[in-house]
Amino acid sequence: MKLSLRCKRGLFLAVVGLSMCFVAKAQNSKFEVGAHGSAFIYQGDLTPSALGSIETTRGGFGVFGSVKMVGPLALRINLAKGSLSGDDSKYANPSWRRERNFKFNTPVTEVSAQVVWNIVNVGNFIRNVNLTPYVLGGFGNTRLNIERDFSETQFKQSAGLDEDLAHPLPNNIPVALAGGGLRYAVSPTLSVNAEASYRFASFTDYLDGFSKSGNPDKDDHYYITSLGLIYSIPQSKGNRNRRKKPTCPAYQ
């Protein structure tokens, strides 16, 4: 059976209209949940690099829930679990690091509140691309269980080590963080994202268990990079009816 031109045009417009409604429904979703796999990177006395200890990167994971606030802003509650590690013996230069041979490990459990700002939807400018860059910042608390090891040091005497051993190691530390990422919508309700966030203030120089015998002038830090999935929870019919929105046109 052949469809008339009018029927074809009406069918096409109906499909387009329904698609627009479906996409708008996801874009107007107020709540989101997500999960991600992560890499935890330590930065402190036991690494010579300003980028942190890439050689001792440890894996982890995280989950979060977020709620839209005003405009492009959202409030996210994030749980991240992983571990941090540092090891002087990983670095040949400078040579004294292998002679000092300090090590540490600690599990990490971080809970944080973050404000996420979705900067711009690239899909508004590039056809068929739904890519959104974002930045974030926030505060949280990190729980640690630090195990330090100096048993293989070749130093006969390390300045400040006795003072470090007498200093209690922190079990909980406050953190301030900042970062950014990209998210790509693969469907109206599902997105993938890549993110990096740096704990620029950990308020301690004993994240690795050493301070006076290391570099007492700088605190220790860490950052997290991750890849994950985000699910935008569709609004219920009741919630949609309470909001005044233009309805989809009817086609005849």
UniProtKB/TrEMBL annotation:
<feature type="domain" description="DUF6089">
    <location>
        <begin position="11"/>
        <end position="226"/>
    </location>
</feature>
<keyword id="KW-0732">Signal</keyword>
<dbReference type="InterPro" id="IPR011250">
    <property type="entry name" value="OMP/PagP_B-barrel"/>
</dbReference>
<dbReference type="InterPro" id="IPR045743">
    <property type="entry name" value="DUF6089"/>
</dbReference>
<dbReference type="Pfam" id="PF19573">
    <property type="entry name" value="DUF6089"/>
</dbReference>
<feature type="signal peptide">
    <location>
        <begin position="1"/>
        <end position="26"/>
    </location>
</feature>
<protein>
    <submittedName>
        <fullName>Outer membrane protein</fullName>
    </submittedName>
</protein>
